[in-house]
Amino acid sequence: MKKIGFVFFVLFFLVNTKGTAQCDIKNRILADGSMVYYFNPEIFYTTNSKSLKINIITDKEHYFIALQPTPFPSKKEGKKIKDDLIMHLADNKIYKLKHYDTQYIKNDSIMQVLYLIDDKDLGSFSKSEAVSAEIKMEGTDFVREFNFKLHKRAIIRQLACFLKEDKE
Fold first, then answer.
1. Per-residue pLDDT tens for 68-105?
2. 31-79: pLDDT as tens digits
């Protein structure tokens, strides 16, 4: 009987730890004094020549998809990026996300492009996994389409954490 109780305790602990690890929300204060909340980026696509990491960032008012493509254009070329992002979700719909900002972080070793998720589309992004993204970056030769192979449900998981936290 003690063994069964111990097994249940261990299983409960593992399930509980996994649930908390999924919601490892980080935060940082921006130069303007505002606070943003985010997750570490997850790899959605990778080959020998290119990769794409994605995560959700929020200021608790708006939600953004942050893309970190590799390789990325130089800062001079990258700052010209103003086009929107086209996302295909598993619900067979196409979503257009408005370009919000292009940033170079960590001493310009990482490029991050932020796209605003429209409030009316938030429900779809929190229920349907990501299938692909079309990144059209005007002014550069950096036009790519990514068919996601990895972590397709990461956006769903991250939004679930943020939305659950907002309700509490």
1. 988 888 888 888 788 899 999 999 999 999 999 999 98
2. 889 999 999 999 998 889 888 999 999 999 999 999 998 888 888 888 8
What is the pTM (predicted TM-score) of this model?
A: 0.80
Angle at 90 between CA 44 and CA 129, to 5 degrees: 45
Give the separation between CA 43 and CA 162, rounded to whole angstroms: 20
CB contact burial 114-132 (16+ within 10 A = b; e otherwise): bbbbeeebeebbbebbbbb
First-residue to last-residue Cα distance in the chain: 38
**Is the separation of the CB atoms in 94 and 86 below 8 Å?**
yes
Q: Which of 84, 82, 104, 87 is nearest to 146 (CA)?
A: 87
DSSP string, 85-154: EEEEETTS-EEEEEEEEEEEETTTTEEEEEEEEPGGGHHHHTTS-EEEEEEE-TTSS-EEEEE--S-TTH
